[in-house]
Amino acid sequence: MFFRKKKEETTPKKELLYRENIRVNCTPDTQENVIRRVGRMLVDTGYVDEPYIEAMIKREQSFSTYMGNDLALPHGVEEAKKDIKASGIAVMVFPEGTEWGGQKAKVVIGIAGVGEEHLQILSIIADKMLAPEAADELVKGDVETVYRILGGKE
């Protein structure tokens, strides 16, 4: 009577990537608009709270998230960790590229990582994107191709 059973965890762990967080054949836009769009996908699928988008913009203003190989990995600043509810990514693919701090990014992956999970996410992405042909496969692929490669389904 005085002791209650601990409530079972009822919320299933989110997948790192959902198909609805993949946009292919995107048209070029400003860097800030792209960050806002990829951040909005993270908000809409419950990975982060709204303020995380501004934290992604702030990160980009202080340090470019362009990684080479046509890849940009926008993510929030350290103080935005409190706005992350679950680890996840959102992907936008720009076949023509989109301007990214003087570079052209063809693949933009917005990242939210709980605790130190962002390092694991970066490691997974870096591993998959190491070869230049990886970006080409994503750029030429459809949603299922992107999901298979980045969602760890291959």
Summarize the structure.
The protein has 154 residues and is an alpha/beta fold.
Describe the structure.
This protein has 154 residues and is an alpha/beta fold. The protein has a five-stranded mixed beta sheet. It has helices at 31-44, 51-62, 117-129, 132-140, 143-150; strands at residues 22-23, 66-68, 71-72, 88-100, 103-112. It has five helices and five strands, in the order βααββββααα.
Which term fits the overall shape?
globular
Stretches with pLDDT under 50, minimum 5 residues: 1-10
Helix content: 25-40%
How do the strands line up in the largest sheet?
Answer: 1-4-5-3-2
SSE succession: EHHEEEEHHH
Terminal Cα span = 50 Å
Over all CA atoms, what is the radius of gyration?
16 Å
Task: Give me the oligomer status.
Answer: single chain
Percent of residues in beta strands? 15-25%
Biggest sheet statistics: 5 strands, mixed
Structural class: alpha/beta
- Mean pLDDT across all residues, rounded? 88
Number of helices: 5
| Number of E strands | 5
Topology, pairings included?
Blueprint: E1 22-23, H1 31-44, H2 51-62, E2 66-68, E3 71-72, E4 88-100, E5 103-112, H3 117-129, H4 132-140, H5 143-150
Parallel strand pairs: 1-4, 3-5
Antiparallel strand pairs: 2-3, 4-5
